[in-house]
Amino acid sequence: MSKLQAVLWDVDGTLADTERDGHRVAFNRAFAEAGFAWNWGEELYGTLLQVSGGKERLRFFFEQHCSHPPPEPWDAWIPKLHKAKTKHYLALLAEGAIPLRPGVERLLRELLAAKVRLAIVTTTTPENVTTLLTHTLGPASISWFECIAAGDVVPAKKPSPDIYHYTLQQMQLSPDTCIALEDSENGLRSALGADITTLVTQTAYTRTDDFTGARLVTDHLGEPETPMQIVAGKLPAQRWVTLDLLRELCDSNSR
Ligand code: XBP
Ligand code: MG
User: Fold this and answer.
1) Distance (Å, rounded) from C-alpha 242 to C-alpha 230?
2) Strand pairing report for 216-218 and 230-232
3) Which of 48, 65, 194, 200 has a CA positioned 20 to 30 A from the CA of residue 159?
């Protein structure tokens, strides 16, 4: 009998490849709307992704790149700008601009059928999660997840393990009965900090990240017609991530 009881899903980069064509575009639309000349290109945004959290990312950018003081104190101004960015991001999701990554719906439905407990564990704003789920899997999919741990629900964002500790506490789960699905070094560090076995599906933005400690690193979760490529870890028999593979990873790590 496998120890696996729950699969904990990251959002940005894991459920969907949201950063380049989603969050980045939304930030730029918010800058333009506020009358700022800033425009985060793909390369610059890739460097800013080292900072988890949109509000934290804005502050990091302004402190690194802006010599003149903000129009009002940071703590008042950044939340307003971030609220505008979220409005633009939700509109992009509603247009269907951000599809799920390969294998995500297939694996979710397999886990649902097997009654494996599910959670979302993300740095992003909660409304971004429910809107992404609604526009990709339908509004009922929100209830598939026992816990949606998102955004400012914890004091420190990834790579801090706080959001994973919060989720384990909410679900009364022991870390050795879970698998985390992540895409980035920050996410991996966060899950490992909570002693959770982690599978990484890297993205174009995270493929140069350090995934030391991940049980398996692939390019995506795979589909029968589009098998996954293994980047690091023991080559499994099947070429797409299944419940059996997740059980194997969870059980082999707890021996
Ligand atoms: C990735 C993040 C998020 C998004 C932006 O989250 O760091 O902050 O980049 O979303 P995940 P917000 O943990 O899902 O990989 O602007 O709402 O923070
Ligand atoms: Mg992520």
Assistant:
1) 14
2) antiparallel
3) 65
**236 DSSP assignment:** -
187 lines ligand 1 (CB under 6 A): yes
pLDDT in tens, 166-182: 999 999 999 999 999 99
Atom of ligand 1 nearest to the CA of 85: 16
52: three-class secondary structure by DSSP: coil
Residues less than 5 Å from ion ligand 2, measured at CB: 10, 12-13, 183-184, 187
pTM of the model: 0.96
Please list, residue by residue across 27-60, b when 16 or more beta carbons sit within 10 angstroms of its beta carbon and e when fewer do: bbbbbeeeeeebebeeeebbebbebbbbbbbbbe
- What's the average model confidence in pLDDT over 97-103? 97
Band of pLDDT at residue 255, cut at 50, 70 and 90: very low
Residue 63, amino acid: E
Give the mean pLDDT of 206-228.
Answer: 97
CB atoms within 10 A of CB 244: 15
In the reported structure, the alpha carbon of residue 51 is separated from the centroid of ligand 1 by a whole-number distance in angstroms of 9
